[in-house]
Design brief:
Elements: H1 19-29, H2 35-43, H3 48-69
């Protein structure tokens, strides 16, 4: 399966079938360089879901750290 290709039998009703692409696009819109992530997910598609969940966790952790480091009390 390629990113962006929806496997209709795998889609749970009421969910978005383009989960991978939507997450990558959202991160790109937030300023993250997703080229390497996209390439990794394509070349290791059997681990893509687990990898994307881990990447989501890491990006969230980075964003929280950026927020903490930008507090005025640090200046």
């Amino acid at each position: 399966m390629r990113l962006g290709q929806v496997m209709t039998e795998d889609i749970v009703e009421g969910t978005d079938g383009y989960w991978f692409d939507n997450n990558l696009q959202e991160w790109a819109n937030d300023g993250w360089d997703t080229t390497g992530i996209r390439n990794y997910l394509i070349t290791r598609e059997e681990y893509a879901t687990e990898a994307l969940v881990r990447i989501d966790y890491l990006i969230s952790a980075c964003e929280q750290l950026i927020t903490r480091m930008s507090h005025e009390w640090l200046h």
